[in-house]
Specification:
Elements lengths: L1 H4 L4 H11 L10 H6 L7 H11 L2 H10 L5 H10 L3 H11 L6 H14 L2 H7 L11 H10 L3 H14 L6 H11 L2 H9 L6
Helix pairs in contact: 4-5, 4-6, 6-7, 6-8, 8-9, 10-11, 10-12, 11-13, 12-13
């Protein structure tokens, strides 16, 4: 709003911002604008989703403090897809702690993979337990289908550490070919000496 005030009087700029405040693009707004116009905002969820996509932690924190009705899981998914690891962790641990179900967590993980943000994927990677085979093969295949080479290599290294006796070349190639990235196909073809 400060930028408009240099060209317009404060009343005119306030009217313009009130008109814009309930859309889905809050790019021109600072946290001070959001606070100033908070009584005018009716679409808090849209504001929060935008902030999550843009990595605007100060706006998400403010909305959280206000206790507005927001789809926080969707916010976390948007933040994960756009690689805002700090926001993903803020939402997970400060807002949804104890409320995030496994299905929501997996959706969040998938958003990070689809967005191709390895740091976010690593922060969401589940440690394997002793009773089950780790999900790394499935994670690698999912990344291959979404053409995310660095994430394929991250999980591929974990699969290689498990050993060839657990590997399923046919399934890996099927996912790599479905994704269609020749670099990933080449990686899967050479990750093991498949002849042995």
């Amino acid at each position: 709003m400060k930028a408009l005030e240099t060209h317009l009087n404060i009343d005119t700029s306030a009217i313009i911002f009130k008109f814009l405040i309930n859309g889905d693009d809050y790019t021109p707004f600072t946290i001070d604008d959001i606070k100033l116009l908070s009584k005018e905002i009716t679409e808090w969820n849209e504001c929060a989703q935008w902030a999550a996509k843009e990595g605007r932690s100060e706006i998400l924190e403010y909305i959280s403090i206000l206790g507005k009705s927001v789809n926080w899981i969707m916010c976390a998914n948007n933040a994960a897809f756009h690689g805002h690891t700090n926001l993903v962790n803020y939402i997970r641990f400060d807002i949804l702690y104890g409320y995030l179900e496994m299905g929501d967590y997996y959706e969040l993980f998938c958003s990070a993979v689809e967005g191709g943000h390895l740091d976010t994927v690593i922060s969401l990677d589940i440690e394997p337990d002793e009773d089950r085979k780790p999900p790394w093969e499935n994670d690698m295949c999912y990344a291959a289908e979404h053409k995310q080479l660095e994430i394929v290599k991250y999980f591929g290294a974990k699969v290689i550490d498990l050993g060839i006796m657990y590997a399923d070349r046919e399934e890996y190639m099927k996912s790599a070919k479905k994704g269609g990235d020749p670099r990933i196909i080449r990686y899967v073809e050479t990750m093991f000496d498949w002849k042995h």
